[in-house]
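All the exercises in this workshop are built on plain-text protein records. A record pairs a protein's sequence with a compact description of its fold. Read left to right, the backbone structure tokens trace the chain's path through space. Once this layout is familiar, the rest of the handout is easier to follow. Here is such a record, shown just as it appears in the course material:
>
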Amino acid sequence: MRLFSTDKRMNPTNAGGRFALRVLPPLLLVVILIAALQLLADTGVIRHYVLPAPGEVARSLVQDFAVMGNYALCTLRIALPGFLLSALTGTAFALLMDRFILLSHTAYPFIVISQTIPTLVITPVIVLIFGYGDMASLIVVILVCFFPVTINLLQGLRSVDDDLLQMMHTMGASRAAILRHLKFPASLPSFFAGIRISSTYCVMAAVLAEWAGGGEGIGIYMLRMKRSFRYSAMFASILWIIALSLIFYAVALFAERFSMPWRERPAGQTDRRSLS
């Protein structure tokens, strides 16, 4: 006797059903918002110099696509290595802080304090110190993205079950073996939580660095369009920034699922087989 229904219409455990449930509702909401903004712009409720109509933004996006793409590549040239370096340094620092308690007690307050300083305030200082170039932008991205990776991974490393740790110690496992076979695999969910957060910050940090004078990317293009009163092109550049951030997030999500395939098993799959 089956205790649970296996009808896919009621329990969409297949990949297509899960994809539809995740994508269609937000996509529908975006379409409704765009239609509402277009209607308000056409009826004159919203003036074009305040908020351009979605149609004007789309027209600027198509007409200036090649130019915006070149500026976006300049931003990507900073955001990508900055994100990767922040992930590597954040991972290494979290492992060191987990290994050496004195380092953790010493560095942890300064890591937290570094995040209390507004990015818009510290970015011009970094640009003045390291010059108007890629190095300053790279440091800004690392500074912004370093914190989520470090703190989340450190929390994951320290949240491992004490009974499992004691068992491995009893079996004579070395620190390296415990880290490799227990602590790091158990902390992967926390680690990728920090990676996902950083992936949405890296493009924004690169744009902030450009605004402060470090680099020549999509953030500079957006400022130029604003000063030229081309607000449709300015909002089109914002769409480029959103698209780049979503690409980084999608790659981080793919890496998480690739590293932890067991988390993608449909819930209750084993239970239904055993109760059939």
Observations:
- The radius of gyration is 24 Å.
- The domain at 50-258 is CATH 1.10.3720.10 (MetI-like fold).
